[in-house]
Amino acid sequence: MSDLVQLTKDQDVAIITINNPPVNALGPGVPEGISQAVKEVTQDESVKAAVLMGAGRTFVAGADIKEFGKITSGKTARGAGLLPLLRQIEDCPKPVVMAIHGTAFGGGLELAMSGHHRVGAPDAQVGQPEVKLGIIPGAGGTQRLPRLAGVAKAVEMCAQGNPIPAREALDYGILDRLIEGDLLTGAIAFARAVLGKPAPKTRERNQKLGTPEQNAPIFAAARELARQKQRGMIAPLAAIDAVEAATRLPFDEGCEVERKLFNDCLFSDQSKAFIHVFFGEREVAKIPDIPKETPIIPVNSVAVVGAGTMGGGIAMVFANAGIRVLLKDADPPALDRGMEVIRKNYSSSVRRGRFTQQFVDERLQLIKPVLGYDDFDKVDMAVEAVFEGMQLKKEVFGQLDRGCRPGAILASNTSTLSIDEIASATARPEAVIGTHFFSPANVMRLLEIVRGKASSKAVIATCMQLSKKLGKVGVLVGNCRGFVGNRMFGPYRREAQFLVEEGASIEAVDQALYDFGMAMGPLATGDLAGLDVGWRIRKEFRHLEKPGTRQPFAEDRLCEMGRYGQKTGAGWYKYDENRRAILDPEVVDSLRKWSAEAGIPQRKISPEEIVDRCILALVNEGARILEEGIAVRAVDIDIIYLNGYGFPAYRGGPMWYADTVGLNKVRDRISEFHRQQGELWEPAPLLKRLAQEGKTFAEYHQSQDLTAA
Ligand code: 3HC
Ligand code: NAI
Q1: Same-domain status, 83 and 192
Q2: Is-cis flag, bond preceding 250, omega within 30?
C-alpha cells in the first residue's frame, strides 16, 4: 500500500484514508493506492463494507493541478485518467461509503460519486470548479452528477463552478446523510446500516436524466447565462455540452464525449492561463525576503480617516471581517453623508440577499463615526483616506503619529503619492505602509500593499495576512507614482485617447477592448472612475512631463467642459437616468475639431491596432515595473490586473498574455509603434533582453528585493 493511502479496519468495515497533504489532491500514487485498497477490500472476506475518507483538513480537493502542465507540455501522458478507478470502486461488490469533510471538489466529487453512498459533515462543501481552471470535469463528473442531482443542478454546478454546502448537496441527492459529531464513527455506522441492502451504482441511476423536452430549456438558459456571465470562456459551454451528452447517450459514450471536450479545454491557451492564475493567486502571498515566521501584529480594531468614497467602503470591509472601526472625518456633514452611504449600501445588500439584516445590524454596530482623534490610542491600525494631496496627507500622518499607540500600523490609501514622503511626517516610518484599496472598496478584490523604504517586515507581513482576512487578494508592490496598477493604466488610457485623436471612433476603441475581453472599454472606464481624477493628477505632475513628448488632450478638454464622466452625467459619453451610455455628437464634433487644430492626420484604425496599442502599452510599462523591482514577479502584475482592472482571466493577465503572444512578436510590434509614434513607445530594456534570449516574463525572477527599488 502506498504511503499516500492507508487501509485499516474497524471489525468488518475497512477504512481507506487518503493522506496527501495539504488538500489530498489525486496526485501520482493516490489513485494507485485507492485502487490497491479497493482490491484488498474486495478480496478480504472479513470485510463487509468500506468507508473512504480524507486525512487532515479535507476530503479530496480534486486532481493535482500541477500535473496538468506536465500533460500539456508533453512531459507525461494523460492516459485514461481516473475513469477506470472510479468504475472499479463502483463495481466493488461491497458497499463503499464516501465520508466527506472540508471540500470534495473536482476529481474529489467525482471520486465521491463513484461510491455507493455519500455522507458528509454539515460544514462540508462539494463542487465541480473545473471551469475556473478553464477545463471541465474529466472523470465522469458531467455524467454522474446529473444522475444524482438532476440535470438543472448539474449544469449549474459544472458550468458555473461554484461549490454548494452540504445541506444543499443533501437536498439534491448528492449526499445521502449529514453526520453530526465524529464523521468516521457516523460513516462506519452508516456502512453497517446499509449492509445487505442494494448498493446503487451512480452510472446506472438514470431516473433524474429528464426528457429532451424538459432539458432543452435548461440547456438553452445555461448557454445564454454562460455567454453573458462568462463572456469569452470556452469551458462553461463545453461543460454544458458534456452534461447534455449525459442526457442523450449511454454512460460510456457520454464519458467519451466528456473526455474529448476535457482534452480540448486542457490543451487550450485559456486553461493554461487559468492555471497560471490559480497558482499566481497563491504565489503573490509569498514575499522572498519575508519569512513565513515573521511575527504578525494582531489587528482587532482600526481607525479610518476620511469618510468619503473610499473611507466608507474601507470601513465596511473591516466591519465585514468583524473588526471594530472608528470612522473619522474632519467635516460633520461629510461624516453624516459617509455613514448614510454605508447604511444605504448595506440595505441594498440585504435587498439583494447578500447579507441578512442581523449581519448588517451587527456590522453597523462595529462602525463608530467620530470627528476627533480621541480613542485613536486604542486602535491597532489606522487607514488614511482623505483627499489626495501631499500636504494634507502629511498633516494627517503627523496627527496619527501623535495620536496612535506605539506599534500601531499607519496606512495610507493614496493612489499616487509617495509612501516614503508620507512616512517622513512621522517619527516611525517603519510603521507606515500603503494599503491601496480599489473602488468600490467593499466590492473590489484587489489590495495593493505599498512597501515604503522603511516599512518593517512585521507591518508588511501583517498587511499581507490581513488582506486574506478581509477577503482581498493582497499584492505587495514598491513605492513609485501610481504603484503597479495605476502606473500601467496611464499608458493604456493614454493610447486610448491618442487613438480617438487619430480618428478612431469612441465606440470602436471601447468595443475593440471589450471584445478582447476587458470588462469595459477604456473610455467608458474613464467615465466611471471620473475623468477629473486623471485631469487633476496631470495638472499636479505636468512639470514631470518631458517637453516635446506627445500628450493626450481630449480628456483635459472634456473636463474643461465640465464633463467629468458619469458623476456629471457626461464625459466621453452622455448618460441617461439609468446611467446608460449614449454617444454624444457634441463630443464627436469637438474631437474632430481639436484634432484638426492639433494637426493630427485622421485615418481608419483597425480593431487589431486598437488592441495592440492599448494592451502592449500595459505590457511595456509592466516590463519596466518588473525590472525596477516594483513588482516581485510578472504574475504579481497579472493578479493586479485581473482583480483590479477587469483584465480577462482567460488571458492570464497582461504579462502572461505577452508571453503567449511571444516576446519576440511583442517587441517587434512595440518597435513598430516606436517608429510611428515616437519615444513614448521605446521598448522596455527587459522586454528587449528577454525577447533576445527567447525567454518569457514568467521565467524572469528579480534577484533584488523590493527595498532596492
Ligand atoms: N492540486 C494541486 N495543488 C493544490 C490543489 C490541487 N487541486 N488545491 C490546492 N492546492 C495547493 C495550493 O496551491 C496551495 O499550495 P501552497 O501552499 O504551496 O501555495 C495549497 O494546496 C493550499 O491551498 P489553498 O492555499 O488554496 O488553501 P485553502 O484552504 O485556502 O483552500 C481549497 C483549499 C478550497 C481546496 C482550494 O485550494 C481550492 O479551491 N483548490 C482547487 C480545487 C479545484 O479546482 N479542484 C479541481 C481540480 S481539477 C480536477 O479535479 C479535474 C478532474 O475533473 C479530473
Ligand atoms: P473623497 O473626496 O470621496 O473623500 C475624502 C474625505 O476625506 C472627505 O469626506 C473629506 O471630508 C475627508 N477629509 C479631508 N480632510 C480630512 C481630515 N484632515 N481628516 C479627516 N477627514 C478628512 O475621496 P476618495 O475618493 O474617497 O479618496 C480618498 C483617497 O483614496 C485619496 O487618497 C484617493 O487618491 C484614494 N483613492 C481613491 C480611489 C477612488 O476611486 N476614489 C481609488 C483608490 C484610492
Answers
A1: yes
A2: no
List the CATH number of the domain containing 158: 3.90.226.10
Q: Are residues 472 and 491 in the same domain?
A: no
> CA–CA separation, 165 vs 543, rounded Å?
57
Tell me the C-alpha distance between 405 and 328, whole Å. Answer: 17
Going from the Cα of 530 to the center of ligand 1, the distance in angstroms, rounded, reads 39
pLDDT (tens digit per residue) in 286-306: 999 999 999 999 999 999 999
Query: Of ligand 1's atoms, which has the minimum distance to the CA of residue 137?
Result: 53
| 328 CB near ligand 2 (under 6 Å) | yes
Mean per-residue pLDDT, 114-132: 98
pLDDT tens column, 245-301: 999 999 999 999 999 999 999 999 999 999 999 999 999 999 999 999 999 999 999
284 occurs within a structural domain: no
Taking 60 as the threshold, does the pLDDT of residue 532 lie above it?
A: yes
Residue ending a domain, choose from 422, 457, 477: 477
Whether the model pTM is above 0.85: yes
**Rounded to an integer, what distance in angstroms lies between the CA atom of residue 71 and that of residue 123?**
34
Q: Clarify whether residues 368 and 428 are in a common domain.
A: yes
Q: Report the distance separating Cα 205 and Cα 240, nearest Å.
A: 20
pLDDT of residue 692: 97
Domain boundary among 211, 242, 267: 267
Distance between CA 581 and CA 481 in Å, rounded?
Answer: 31
- Domain contains 48: yes
Nearest ligand to the C-alpha atom of residue 305 = 2
Cell of 18: 487518503
Alpha helical stretches, state H, 564-700: 585-597, 607-628, 634-644, 654-661, 663-677, 685-693
Task: Look up the CATH number of the domain holding residue 592.
Answer: 1.10.1040.50
Inside any domain, residue 367: yes
Do 643 and 495 share a structural domain? yes
Mutate to test the pocket of ligand 2, among 304, 305, 310 (most ligand atoms within 8 A of CB): 310
Q: How confident is the model at residue 547 (pLDDT cuts 50, 70, 90)?
A: confident
Instruction: Assign residue 402 the CATH number of its domain.
Output: 3.40.50.720
User: How many Å apart are CA 49 and CA 41, to the nearest integer?
Assistant: 8
Same domain, 324 and 436: yes
Q: Does 116 share its domain with 245?
A: yes
Shared-domain flag, residues 462 and 490:
no
Residue 557: pLDDT above 80? Answer: yes
Q: Which of 339, 410, 415 to mutate to test the pocket of ligand 2 (most atoms within 8 A of CB)?
A: 415
Q: CB 416: neighbour CB atoms within 10 A?
A: 19
**CB burial string 287-307: b at 16+ within 10 A, e below:** beebeeebeebebebbbbbbb
**Domain count along the chain:** 3
Q: Which domain holds residue 629?
A: 485-693
User: Where is average pLDDT lowest: 205-209, 241-245, 544-548, 677-681?
Assistant: 544-548
As given in the structure block, the three cell numbers for residue 151 are 440535470
Tell me, using a 6 A CB cutoff, whether residue 329 lines ligand 2.
Answer: yes
22 occurs within a structural domain = yes
Mean pLDDT of the chain: 96
Residue 18, ligand 1, Cβ within 6 A: no
How far apart CA 112 and CA 94 sit, in angstroms, is 15
pLDDT value for 444: 96
Give the model's pLDDT for residue 553.
94
Q: How confident is the model at residue 702 (pLDDT cuts 50, 70, 90)?
A: low
* Whether pLDDT at 680 is above 90: yes
Judgement on whether residues 526 and 655 belong to the same structural domain of the protein: yes
- Residues 140-166 have a mean pLDDT of 98
Q: Which three cell numbers stand for residue 184?
A: 468516521
Q: What confidence category does residue 706 fall into, taking pLDDT thresholds of 50, 70 and 90?
A: very low
